[in-house]
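User: Can you predict the 3D structure of Transcriptional regulator? Sequence below.
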Amino acid sequence: MKLIIAIIQDEHANKVIRELTDNKFRVTKLASTGGFLKSGNTTLLIGSEDDKVDFVEEIFRKHSNKNNVKSDKGEVKVAANLFIIPVEDYRKF
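Assistant: Sure. Here are the predicted C-alpha cells for Transcriptional regulator:
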C-alpha cells in the first residue's frame, strides 16, 4: 500500500477529487499555501494499493495542466507534485 500526498493548484482540485472518488479512492482534502509562490493550493492524501498508483498518477496528469505563474522570482510552470510513500501498516476503525 502507498500513501500519495499530492499538492495541486486549487483550480484543479475538484476535477481530480471527483475522478478519484468515482474510481473508489478515498481522499482527504487539506487547504495549503505554498511557500515559493505564496498562493493557495490543495493537498490531497490518498491511500492506494501498489498496483493502482500509476492509475492515480494518470488522473493527475489528465486534470493538472501546467500553468505559467508569476512570482517575485520570475515565471514558473506549475502543475502537481506527488509524493508516493510506502505504508507499512494501515488500520481502519
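Residues 34 and 41 are 7 Å apart (CA to CA). The beta strands are 2-9, 27-33, 40-48, 67-71, 74-78, 80-86.
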